[in-house]
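Quick one:
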Amino acid sequence: MPPPKDPIKYEEYRRKLSEGLKRRYEDPIKGEEYRRKLSETLKKLYADPVKGEKTRRKISEAGKGERNPFFGKKHSEASRRKISEAHKKRFEDPIKREETRQKMSVAQKLRAPPSEEYCQRMSEILKSRYADPIKGEEIRKKKAREGKEKNVLKKLAGR
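Output:
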């Protein structure tokens, strides 16, 4: 049932929804039963690779472009700084750095390897890009220039 448009009815709708969820999780038997049913439903959904793939595609398409809530927006400078600091903290402490590396390593191992089709497609793209020695050399020089520019900017920002 979609939420009502009227603000008063909407608040009541949210309150009832919240109460229902609280009851579901407060009662250990109902909560456990709900989690079990949800888990079974999701397993069935993703057990069929065709259905699972279709669902994933639909979810992916639903959040692309203008349908993405962050579409056309940018993080504020303060927000970007906060994200940057949080990211730096993950690698700042030697113990946390190692934990983070291990977690990332495990996550990488769990990922499915790229398909043969993807590997072939990428191989063809890269071969065509670097097949022409002049064009390939131009690309390599451009990347080298960009790398040097980034290093210079980092040095200036660090001062």
